Amino acid sequence: MSTSTIEWTEITWNPVTGCTKLSPGCKFCYAEVMSKRLKSMRLPKYSDGFKIRTHPDTLNIPFTWKKPRVVFVNSMSDLFHEQVPASFIIAVFEVMNNTPQHTYQVLTKRAERLLELSDSLKWTDNIWMGVSIENQDYAYRADYLAKTPAVTKFLSIEPLIGEVSLINIKDMNWIIVGGESGHKARQVEHNWITKIRLMSEDFGIPFFFKQWGKSKFNSNPLDPTIDKNHPHHAKGGCELDGTIYRAMPTIS
Asked: What distance in Å separates the CA atoms of residue 54 and residue 19, rounded to the nearest whole number?
């Protein structure tokens, strides 16, 4: 468990580490870079670098937290990767089921496997299930998510590297959008973000704009959140037309 700098969560919990690239959004995967760094630091959990590994010894960790937490599950992997045994996915869900004081945010690009296994999983109210989408070609992932019994469903449209105009938003409970960051980050366009914001607004869905990714992508070079000393600083700033959008679903 570690405190997270990701704006929409509090801490991360990684019972699985490692992944493989699946679609264009994976090109500059931060988790892969971080795994290499952690391996060089000789952390046993990352001794195999970015290879898929399950860590049964971490399953007890949520039971040790004294206060309720908002937890991003597997920030360093994809729980629904085909190399993760279904039995281990079920075990992770059982931990989440048995610690209802915590709110868990699970995010996957493997929407097909998510749906395939969804009836084998217990979907308690404290589990938020999301899929990652980077452009129109992968908007279908929202359709798979919509068919699951998850109580709270969300879309992480990040890194947004292309227009998304046709997508199942009406069945979602939360929308996150963000531009790509890093040395080779691909550009995000203002109208791409605005289109998704307006769709979210039409259906009354909480909208969270995480970041532009780089200040040169930001449509407002005077955005005060570009400044690292700003209380809402994000990479490249996070104002959109003068407003900071940080809406969240209701935590029951």
From this structure: 11
Residues 54-78 have a mean pLDDT of 97
State both tokens at 150: 């998850």
Q: Which residue has the tokens 């097909």?
A: 112
Sign of the Cα pseudo-torsion (178, 182, 187, 189, in order)? positive
Residue 252 included in any domain = no
Domain count, the chain: 1
- Strand, coil or helix: what is 243? strand
What are the φ and ψ backbone dihedral angles of 84, each rounded to 5 degrees?
Answer: -90, 120
In a domain, 191, yes or no: yes
Kindly state whether residue 150 falls inside one of the protein's structural domains. Answer: yes
Whether the per-residue pLDDT at 1 is higher than 60: the answer is no
* Calpha distance 4→76 (Å, rounded): 12
Q: What is the pLDDT of residue 131?
A: 98
Domain that holds residue 191: 2-60+69-244
Res 234: pLDDT: 96
Please give the single-letter amino acid code of residue 133: I
Does residue 154 lie within any of the structural domains? Answer: yes
Taking the whole predicted model, whether its pTM rises above 0.85 is answered as yes
